[in-house]
Design brief:
By secondary structure, the chain is of the alpha/beta class. It is built from four helices and seven strands, in the order ββαββαβαβαβ. About 6% of the residues have low confidence.
Length: 123
């Protein structure tokens, strides 16, 4: 069970968080730590580039949903971009708590991408 987390800054308060691998009880702490770090930086908008996310259990998806709720309280939010079918199914199980889903990162951002920096974490 491996998960790579890559952060790309898009402006002062927006990031793309690329997830590649599996989000489960073993890798969830890496995502939580990344989200805590983003909160400390006053990031309010997170687009999760999920095309490389091959698996997520319910706990992993709930971690993302909790982050979305916190970010919405600060005027932002967390969205899923280009998730695999399996990830969509888990998101659908969450009904009203599920995340907003977009077909692509650019659609989720609604703007052209301008990359500023990268940081990668692996679990």
């Amino acid at each position: 069970m491996h998960l790579a987390v890559d952060i790309t800054d898009i402006g002062q308060d927006t990031v793309i968080m690329s997830l590649v691998g599996e989000l489960d009880m073993f890798t969830q702490p890496v995502v939580e730590a990344t989200l805590i770090g983003l909160h400390a930086r006053n990031v309010t908008r997170v687009v999760v580039a999920a095309a490389g996310l091959t698996f997520s259990d319910l706990g992993g998806m709930l971690t993302l949903c909790r982050a979305d709720e916190q970010l919405r309280g600060r005027g932002g939010g967390l969205t899923l971009a280009a998730p695999a079918r399996q990830v969509l199914r888990i998101n659908a199980l969450l009904a009203t708590e599920g995340l907003r889903v977009f077909r692509s990162v650019s659609e989720a951002l609604g703007v052209r991408l301008a990359r500023h920096s990268h940081r990668t974490h692996r679990a």
